[in-house]
Design goal:
The chain has 484 residues and is an alpha+beta fold. It is built from 11 helices and 29 strands. It folds into 3 domains: 279 residues, 3-Layer(bba) Sandwich (FAD/NAD(P)-binding domain); 79 residues, Alpha-Beta Plaits (2-Layer Sandwich), CATH 3.30.70.2450; 92 residues, Glutaredoxin. The strands form 8 sheets. Strands 1, 2, 8, 9, 10, 11, 19 and 20 form an 8-stranded mixed β-sheet that branches. A 5-stranded antiparallel β-sheet has the order 14-15-16-13-17, covered by helices on one side.
Length: 484
């Protein structure tokens, strides 16, 4: 029997990121993936937002993605561009990069961390007890884990088998996305009409990438070349002699979220926990960020340095983030319609988002840079991402994100050297004395008062802010990193 501390079902971006996080923490983790290879068939997500690039930078692997993609201002609301080039981050941009490449790079990183991937294996069910989960596979090979994480997409078998409610809204629109060849030169570019949104783009291999809305919702079965031809004719008056499809798939604006992200020893992340229309490109990004929030917490519970109740904070922190994404996605879907009334609303929104304050507020949300976990009242940094400052230390100037490469917590002290005693947590928290002379600035909020010290969680969010004393520090260390 194959036994692992954690089994991750699904080797997409969320599952790969989670496996990497657990491996960095020294946890025995394995991925079960139904695909025989990492190859992604057809079109999927096409980029990374600023906060996701920061998360990858925190692990020292952002350059692997930046070297393969195209840096651009990709944040937007219903195709209304939101420039974040003035945001206080090293990565005040997005990255155009196909999911095929994103997965390939993440899989390479996971391979370096020696995470086993059981490919061409399909999970058919599970049974959990007080000490673990028996994972049922189609080939009947036995497998057991202490915890099972479903990163198996919007149709998640893990979510369904766990009996977790997937409440939300049924689809109101349906679209086809395909990679094809065309006998005639098409009308390149994006547009909207009475039916919906459509786009024709030239791909690197000379093929045509198609996205086209359908007149009707609720089609049975998989889409066909005939369905694609019909939808193209409805929009363009011709199908341009479409032929030889590499892939054709269908997506809708169905919007749903898991009522709970955990049932005992079974946990959900990524699309298994939330699905929505892809406008804004946030799905892959919040999935990767789910993984980074969950990874260090699950590792601490597996290693028995923290109680199982720490996992409750995964749901309480990430569920509201996804709920907000679902809400803003539905708002964008409405703006993508056509007609004089919607056009008037769109013009108004475009004017509004040309103003600095509305632009920054919405761009902070779309880029993920404004995420704020509710850790109680206090300094504005509390519960927000730690800025990637250049900090002067006894060993030289270091970037804050470089201190997070090994996924350890960091206590960064700007006051009296070694004034904060954390010896009971020394093997869990890295203590660093440093100096920073510049202004402290957060996206959307602007400048904030310089703290005397900060406790940074492995996911890069601030868990405690010091005022020159250690008031509240032991409580914060105990809450997030276990008792002394």
């Amino acid at each position: 029997m194959a036994e692992h501390a954690v089994v991750v079902v699904g080797g997409g971006p969320t599952g790969l990121m989670l496996a990497g996080e657990l491996a960095l923490a020294g946890v025995d983790v394995a991925i079960v993936e139904r695909r025989a290879s990492q190859e992604v068939v057809g079109s999927r997500a096409g980029g990374l937002h600023s906060r996701t690039i920061e998360v990858l930078d925190q692990r020292g692997i952002a350059d692997r993605f930046l070297s393969q993609g195209k840096v651009a201002q990709v944040a937007g609301f219903a195709w209304i561009r939101l420039d974040i080039s003035d945001f206080p981050t090293r990565h005040n941009y997005g990255l155009g990069l196909r999911q095929n490449d994103i997965e390939r790079i993440l899989a390479g990183w996971v391979d370096e961390l020696e995470v086993p991937i059981y490919r061409d294996r399909e999970v058919t069910g599970f049974a959990q007890d007080d000490t673990g989960v028996d994972v049922e596979l189609a080939d009947h090979r036995p497998m057991r884990a202490q915890y099972l994480v479903g990163c198996d997409g919007g149709r998640s078998l893990i979510r369904k088998a766990a009996g977790i409610e997937f409440a939300g809204w049924d689809p109101s629109t349906s679209s086809l996305i395909a990679q094809v060849e065309m006998a005639e030169e098409p009308n390149w570019g994006m547009g909207r009409d009475a039916i919906g949104v459509h786009s024709l783009a030239r791909l690197e291999d000379g093929r045509v990438g198609v996205m086209v809305s359908e007149r009707d919702v609720g089609h049975p079965g998989d889409p066909t070349l005939g369905d694609l031809s019909k939808a193209l004719i409805a929009h363009y008056g011709t199908d341009y002699g479409v032929h030889s499809p590499t892939s054709i798939s269908r997506f809708t604006d169905m919007t749903r979220q898991a009522a709970s992200y955990r049932v005992r020893r079974v946990i959900l992340a990524g699309d298994a926990a939330h699905v929505h229309y892809p406008v804004g490109g946030q799905g892959l990004n919040i999935g990767v960020q789910d993984a980074v929030n969950l990874g260090w917490k699950l590792a601490a519970v597996v290693k028995e340095t923290s109680p199982e109740s720490l996992l409750d904070t995964y749901h309480s922190e990430r569920h509201p983030v996804a709920a907000r994404v679902l809400r803003t996605t539905m708002a964008q879907t409405a703006l993508l319609g056509s007609g004089e009334r919607i056009d008037a609303l769109r013009e108004t929104m475009t004017e509004l988002l040309g103003m600095d304050e509305p632009r920054k507020w919405l761009a902070g949300m779309m880029s993920g840079l404004d995420i704020h976990y509710d850790l109680g009242a206090g300094h504005p940094l509390l519960g927000r991402r730690m800025p990637d400052l250049d900090v002067a230390t006894a060993a030289g100037t270091v970037r804050v994100f470089s201190l997070l490469h090994d996924a350890h917590a960091v206590l960064l002290n700007f006051g009296k050297p070694w004034g904060l005693d954390i010896s009971p947590w020394a093997n869990r928290v890295l203590a660093v004395d440093g100096k920073y002379a510049g202004a402290w600035e957060l996206p959307v909020l602007g400048q904030v008062a310089a703290p005397a010290a900060v406790l940074i969680r492995p996911d890069g969010y601030v868990a405690w802010v010091g005022d020159g004393t250690d008031t509240g520090l032991r409580e914060a260390l105990t809450t997030w990193f276990g008792s002394s």
